[in-house]
């Protein structure tokens, strides 16, 4: 205590000597600023509180310590409860994901043609999809799925007949017949069985079981499928192990019927005695039972009751220490608080004084602003800042009003093919709040006919009104989900119809029928009610966002073709064979082809190439010279690509150049398409190889950095990403893709491997090792070590010895 007081006085004296210039300025401010005095008075009032607190803490230290310990215990138990309920919720979420799994639903709806016949491929696909779930949640390590139509059980990466699975895993007190009747053939709705003994691979474990029938709307009788998740009691105890390590005592979890789900440090009989006595407390959280303080927390989500007992001596061990330091702390707080109050009063009032002076200087220049003498500084600042906020709201409102123009600009860029990659399109769509969940559909142009003279202001105004009427009809009572409109000139409206935005994907033929019905109805209404004659032209079906511009160009061609040939009200590009002596290979298509190859997107590049060739082969009657010129144009595009740096440095530039030049323009279309496709595949392979090399270098750099800095307790994803000079999300995904392991798991594994070496050396304590391998808390280190290695550090050292 003497050392603490002396050290406090020395520190206070040093602060006073160093703060002399501050006090000089403070005295000047004190004479001039009422704001400073208000701050100082508030701090002095606050300083009175510690003096009373010191006295009361001495008198009530025992009760305070007890209440704090109870509160901390309740918080700790609540955390354990929340962790366990999150795990149970993940288990329930797993069953709901399975309920939505298309492959599982397909298996449920199958009826084997021959008794005993099994859809092996479908079951294999399902097993492949559900296996990763057990790697992310230790509660999902043991589960099985029963399919009643096949009478098989899917578990542990394989399939079993019920009687075979029963031999390897069954309840000790349940026969095969009872198990089939009560578990497999009954209907379950998120049921959890009490703690029971389970015989699994000739070993007995205590476990609870979560059961859910599929589909989720099964209510009675036998259901098509059942999911049973067996949760080892040890996994539940691991979530409560922190409580035992910190407080000792015992923990228990019971269900709504009082059946045990987990017991640590207490027998079932003792638990029943505690429950029978405490259940009548009307929701009391804490109560002493014998020499233990019992914390009781019921769960509103599951109906379970969580109880934990803390020995009484653990609660009271800090009381004497609090008594000893209470008066010292109170005296030091008064002395230091007075000094800090003076400094903070100046520091907090000075910015407000500067702000007030700025407002007086800038705002009061206008004669309409006057500073009332009776109003204080805070009222003056409040009024002017409120005015700034109102003006800011008006600015936000104006930006929101202009937002449709921003979206219209995005749609125009989209149909004009100004985006090179899919990611660029999606990023721009998010900025303009445009939903593009579906990537397929049709692009159409709705032409308002009968207005040849577009130079007249009256006609332009009439066309504006006509376009507005058409848009209102398109956005009527039942608009097309995923429809976006933008103007094209004065007499045309571009329509983008996405497929499946209402959650139900249809074929392109079905979507075409629906569009014909909707557009035909609008054309008829426009003519009957407004005497407007409309023509709709549609491009081909696009299957990716990058093809929207191509479908738009086709729709433009059909609109021009329909106007020249006086075609029917609705025309489709796929129904017409345009008579043309020239080939189709616009500049934007060439740019898109180059961009997709440079990105290594082989699938999209193949799709573009196939689309370009089909346009010229199927929809155009090319003369032989035009065909040769078209093929030479594609060859020229590939030569441009080969001049890129990535191909010049690949060592295959000459080889690829010769392959391009060897393509014969006089070959059959199929041969030309195959040869160009092989060339694009090789170019994408070069790009992908270069990208993979770069990614491997980044991952190796990350591993090297972790191996050198794993002992740093502040090492996290942000610092690793900063070292790699990449975004955090990119680093995390890249490491997972290359190594198959999460970055956090890899860091933990490196630390555990070093901890094992240090434990075997027997030169350092467990607490010292925890710091040496980068853990700020020995408790966190022990939990991590036990989770990874299966035993505590001390037990591992004993086993190693």
UniProtKB/TrEMBL annotation:
Transmembrane segments: 324-346
HTH araC/xylS-type domain residues: 700-799
Keywords annotated in UniProt: DNA-binding, Membrane, Transcription, Transcription regulation, Transmembrane, Transmembrane helix
Keyword Protein biosynthesis recorded: no
Pfam family membership, one: HTH_18
PROSITE patterns given in the database record: HTH_ARAC_FAMILY_1 (PS00041), HTH_ARAC_FAMILY_2 (PS01124)
UniProt key word Hydrolase: no
Classification via InterPro entries: Homeodomain-like_sf (IPR009057), HTH_AraC (IPR018060), HTH_AraC-typ_CS (IPR018062), Tscrpt_reg_AraC-type_HTH (IPR020449)
Name of this chain's protein: HTH araC/xylS-type domain-containing protein
Organism whose genome encodes this protein: Paenibacillus physcomitrellae
């Amino acid at each position: 205590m003497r050392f603490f007081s002396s050290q406090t006085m020395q520190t206070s004296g040093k602060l006073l000597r160093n703060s002399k210039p501050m006090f000089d300025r403070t005295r000047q401010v004190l004479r001039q600023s009422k704001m400073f005095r208000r701050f100082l008075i508030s701090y002095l009032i606050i300083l009175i509180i510690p003096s009373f607190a010191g006295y009361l803490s001495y008198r009530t230290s025992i009760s305070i310590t007890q209440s704090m310990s109870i509160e901390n215990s309740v918080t700790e138990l609540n955390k354990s409860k929340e962790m366990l309920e999150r795990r149970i919720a993940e288990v329930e979420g797993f069953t709901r994901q399975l309920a939505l799994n298309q492959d599982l639903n397909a298996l449920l709806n199958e009826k084997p043609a021959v008794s005993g016949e099994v859809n092996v491929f479908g079951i294999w696909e399902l097993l492949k999809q559900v296996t990763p779930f057990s790697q992310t949640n230790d509660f999902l390590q043991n589960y099985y799925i029963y399919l009643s139509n096949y009478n098989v059980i899917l578990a542990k990466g394989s399939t079993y007949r019920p009687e075979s699975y029963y031999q390897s895993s069954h309840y000790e007190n349940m026969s095969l017949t009872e198990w089939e009747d009560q578990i497999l053939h009954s209907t379950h709705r998120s049921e959890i069985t009490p703690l029971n003994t389970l015989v699994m691979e000739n070993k007995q474990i205590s476990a609870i079981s979560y059961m859910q029938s599929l589909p989720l709307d099964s209510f009675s009788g036998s259901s098509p499928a059942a999911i049973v998740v067996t949760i080892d009691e040890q996994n539940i105890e691991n979530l409560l192990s922190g409580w035992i390590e910190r407080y000792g005592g015992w923990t228990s979890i019971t269900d709504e019927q009082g059946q045990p789900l987990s017991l640590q440090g207490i027998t079932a009989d003792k638990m029943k005695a505690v429950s029978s006595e405490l259940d009548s407390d009307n929701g009391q959280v804490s109560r002493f039972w014998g020499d233990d303080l019992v914390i009781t927390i019921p769960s509103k989500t599951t109906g379970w009751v969580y109880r934990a007992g803390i020995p009484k001596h653990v609660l009271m061990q800090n009381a004497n220490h609090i008594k000893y330091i209470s008066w010292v702390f109170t005296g030091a707080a008064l002395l230091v608080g007075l000094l800090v109050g003076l400094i903070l009063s100046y520091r907090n009032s000075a910015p407000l004084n500067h702000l007030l002076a700025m407002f007086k200087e800038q705002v009061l220049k206008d004669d309409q602003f006057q500073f009332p003498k009776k109003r204080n500084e805070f009222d003056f600042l409040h009024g002017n800042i409120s005015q700034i906020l109102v003006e800011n709201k008006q600015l936000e409102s104006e930006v929101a009003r202009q937002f449709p123009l921003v979206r219209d600009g995005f749609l125009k860029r989209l149909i004009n093919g100004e985006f090179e990659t899919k990611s660029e399109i999606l990023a721009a769509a998010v900025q303009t709040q445009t939903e593009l969940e579906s990537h397929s559909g049709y692009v159409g142009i709705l032409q308002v006919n009968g207005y040849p003279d577009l130079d007249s202001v009256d006609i332009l105004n009439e066309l504006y009104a006509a376009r507005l009427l058409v848009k209102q009809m398109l956005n009527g009572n039942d608009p097309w989900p995923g429809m976006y409109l933008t103007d094209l000139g004065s007499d045309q409206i571009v329509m983008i119809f996405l497929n499946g935005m209402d959650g139900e994907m249809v074929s392109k033929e079905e979507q075409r029928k629906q569009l014909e019905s909707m557009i035909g109805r609008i054309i008829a209404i426009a003519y009957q009610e407004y005497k407007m004659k409309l023509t709709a032209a549609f491009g081909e079906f696009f299957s990716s966002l990058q093809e929207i511009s191509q479908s738009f160009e086709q729709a433009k061609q059909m609109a021009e073709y329909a106007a020249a040939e006086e075609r029917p009200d609705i025309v489709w590009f796929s129904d017409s064979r345009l008579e043309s002596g020239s080939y189709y290979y616009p500049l934007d298509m060439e740019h898109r082809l180059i961009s997709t190859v440079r990105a290594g997107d082989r699938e999209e590049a193949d799709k573009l190439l196939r689309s370009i060739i089909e346009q010229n082969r199927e929809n155009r009657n090319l003369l032989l010279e035009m065909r040769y010129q078209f093929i030479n144009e594609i060859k020229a595009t590939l030569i441009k690509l080969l001049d890129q740096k990535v191909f010049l440095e690949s060592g295959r530039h000459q080889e690829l150049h010769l392959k391009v030049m060897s393509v014969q323009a006089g070959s059959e279309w199929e041969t030309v398409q195959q040869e160009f496709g092989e060339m694009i595949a090789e170019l994408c392979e070069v790009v992908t190889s270069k990208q993979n090399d770069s990614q491997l270098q980044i991952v190796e750099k990350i591993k090297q950095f972790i191996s050198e800095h794993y002992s740093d307790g502040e090492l996290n994803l942000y610092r690793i990403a900063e070292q790699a000079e990449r975004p955090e999300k990119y680093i995390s995904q890249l490491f997972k893709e290359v190594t198959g392991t999460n970055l956090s798991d890899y860091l933990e594994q490196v630390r555990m491997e070093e901890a094992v070496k240090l434990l075997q050396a027997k030169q350092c304590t467990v607490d010292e090792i925890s710091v040496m391998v980068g853990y700020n808390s020995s408790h966190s280190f022990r939990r991590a070590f036990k989770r990874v290695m299966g035993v505590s550090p001390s037990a591992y050292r004993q086993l190693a010895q």
